[in-house]
Amino acid sequence: MIKLDPSQIGQETLLATVTVTAEEIRRFAEAVGDLNPLYLDAEAARTAGYSDVIAPPLFCMKMRGGRMRPDVPLEPGYASLHAGQDLEFVDEIYAGQTYTITAKVAEAYEKTGRSGPMGFIVREVAIKNASGRVVVTLKERQIVRSAEKRI
Amino acid sequence: MNMQTERTFSEIEIGDELGPVTRTPTTEMVQRYAAAVDLKELRFFFDPEEARKNGLQHPIVPGPMTAGFMTQLLKDSFPGWRLQSMSTTFRTPALHGEPLNIWGNITEMDEQNGLYTVHCDVVVENPRGDRVAVGTARLSRKKTV
Predict the structure, then answer these.
(1) Residues 73..102 of A with a Cβ closer than 8 Å to B: which?
(2) CATH topology of domain B13-142
């Protein structure tokens, strides 16, 4: 079901180096309806002690890209869903700052549960600031199952 | 959602409730979210035929968008506090246009190394009473003298 070369497990991949803009933060905040002034108004952010507007916590999902990466191919007839995520926020994401995003497949395994065979892919993503300090870590779990089973 | 006024550590108690708030992710909101996070290539989030091919009865709301509603509840409940971590399990897909009820409660508090910390459970439930997502979170704030 999961077509992954075992040598790819643990191999860190550079996903992107991005400079976050206040406009991207605004677009994200408006898309999720989270209109906290800290995300939209530089003056409000400075009053609260930040150097510029900060991003909502889940903005890190935009930074890692829309879909889970590195890509792991599945055999035909299987589909997958996001099963969960663990996020650690060491620091805020600031407008105007540059960040490097890396990711790796930490684990991939298959098992048979009550609803039949399933696969699990666990990825770890790290977002580092320009000094190389990790500011956000994301561990996310993808569940793979037969596309025949409708949910 | 309205932000609450700042609360001091002494005003918080284990068992205090967060929310509830209701968020209804419409198809338009899902499309805006997908555009904002570069998710448009995953068409099963909008296209009913693609959803069926992926084993879904209907297009669904991206899990991280639902998680965003959870972090919003936390940040709005604790202005001035930092969200340090959040773990989320997506239990069943949320459907477009369905109101989601989001609430939480404080499960643990501590005060050490110059920091106040609160731990919370957060739940997202659909109108049928199914838990769409459950999570735990930790927020902190520097102690003031």
Answers:
(1) 79, 81-89, 92
(2) Thiol Ester Dehydrase; Chain A (3.10.129)
